[in-house]
Amino acid sequence: MYYEGVIAKHPLDQSAECVGGASVLAGILGVSVQAVNHWKDRGVPLERCVAIERATNGIVTRKDLRPDDWQNIWPELGKTLVQELEDEAGRERLINRRSSKPGRREFDTAPQQKPRA
């Protein structure tokens, strides 16, 4: 991987460093060291990504491990909490703007009366 002219370590190498080595990482995942090394060329299997993210306490993420397709696999990772809050605030502003236009009211805000028994 290249980041602004700098060669970065492979996420699996970073993962191994976080947990104490490639053999420790392989042990956590229940696979051989050779399998982990194979993933550097072939890609990390989907079923191993969450385990690696947890083993590294989030230092190496699923996004790091699957940079080309993570958004298709885990779309919930696509937005940060801030983005979700901004989207919610944007929807709220849109609703308020629509309901404040003269002659047009999207929602009835008057409290409903309970029917008498």
**Shape call:** elongated
Number of helices: 7
| CATH A-level architecture of the largest domain | Orthogonal Bundle
CATH class categorisation of the largest domain: Mainly Alpha
Largest sheet, strands/sense/barrel: 2 strands, antiparallel
Question: Which percent range describes the beta-strand content?
Answer: under 5%
- Average pLDDT for all residues: 80
Quickly give the structural class: mainly alpha
Helix share of residues? 40-55%
- The run of helices and strands is EEHHHHHHH
State the strand order across the main sheet.
1-2
CATH fold name of the largest domain = 434 Repressor (Amino-terminal Domain)
Number of domains: 2
Spell out the CATH superfamily of the largest domain.
lambda repressor-like DNA-binding domains
Uncertain regions spanning at least 5 consecutive residues: none
In whole angstroms, the N-to-C terminal distance is 71 Å
The beta-strand count equals 2
What is the alpha-carbon Rg in Å? Answer: 24 Å
Description:
The chain is mainly α and 117 residues long. Helices cover 55% and strands 3% of the residues. The chain has a two-stranded antiparallel ribbon with strand order 1-2. The longest helix is centred in the C-terminal third of the chain and has 19 residues, at 81-99. The relative contact order is 0.09.
Give structural attributes.
single chain; 117 residues; mainly alpha; 434 Repressor (Amino-terminal Domain); 7 helices; 3% strand; elongated
